[in-house]
Amino acid sequence: MSVLSIGLLYGASTLLVMFAGMPIAFALGAVATLFMIAFMPSSSVDTITQNVYEEMASITLLSIPLFILKGAAIGRSRAGQDLYGALHAWLHRIPGGLGIANVFACALFAAMAGSSPATCSAIGSAGIPQMRKHGYSGGFAAGIIAAGGTLGILLPPSITMILYAVAAEQSLGRLFLAAIGPALLLVALFTAYA
Prior knowledge:
Layout: H1 3-19, H2 24-39, H3 42-56, H4 59-76, H5 79-91, H6 97-113, H7 116-133, H8 138-149, H9 159-168, H10 172-193
Helix pairs in contact: 1-2, 4-7, 4-9, 5-6, 5-7, 6-7, 6-8, 6-10, 7-8
């Protein structure tokens, strides 16, 4: 078989397996493994286990599922609502204090979870109804939560930064340090707008 026909067969097989309902990661891995066994010398199949071991031994990549687990645990608990409630109690006398409390809550939760969607979900579930109850418009309430949620991609420990550091072979610590200034600037600008 030619390389083109093997590639087309691989693409079609992968799509077929994914449309059958298998998750994307497992479909790609299973079809690739089967094609390597079928179309490559047996000595090159040993590289599968070697590559899997090398990737699993990466301390940097190991941190990602742990941050996701931590974010999921915090998101399912009342931690986001309690954090929001405490900030609202401290800042309710300041003009726009409820919006500012949302921004700070998003920033603090993003620094704990490392994920933008988790931040929007945890803080938005408590923040948007409270803002609506206190007379803020629905667009402003959703906008301030969405804007604050974007801090999850910038504030350490950002999962996106971890992936970038691994892919670009850059220092993760330097990336985290470089993100603190822009993140604090965004928090200040969101606060001033609120």
